[in-house]
């Protein structure tokens, strides 16, 4: 179960409150967006309307990246390209210990929801926590460059084990591979066997999509 500190931070994220005492770039960007935009709890119902806000947020993030030296270059080696997922291009890290994910946040109506999702992931699954390295842009599309530990699977994932682990932490399986934690006000979607890796009997959640919701 979650510690009191984790639960408090999750509640702050869902409420759209500033996260104090953190100095990583991901939290800093999230806090910057929170200062000017509200966290939506109806984003799943108002995706198209929120998409207008996403464009405005991208303009703010362009300025923020320039002011804070967060435009990145030279990190991605085309020879180390691995695959393209639903929302990210994935590269093997030059250190052979991590992967780099170039994410266009297509699953999220706003950039704030994207950084909320990353922040929630890092709290719940610290063994696969993302490090936000900065932004890049291609064809006029803003993208976030994320680093994540590279995990090697040594066994096939049993989705019943995934369901049990999530249930222990208050997540109800609401349909197929989607889960809801009503107490915290968050949805976790698309948790299939390619988004969770098993290594030495431990489950590693490598791709998650979180949304804040209202009942």
UniProtKB/TrEMBL annotation:
It holds the Pfam family Kinase-PolyVal. This is Uncharacterized protein. It comes from Chitinophaga sancti.
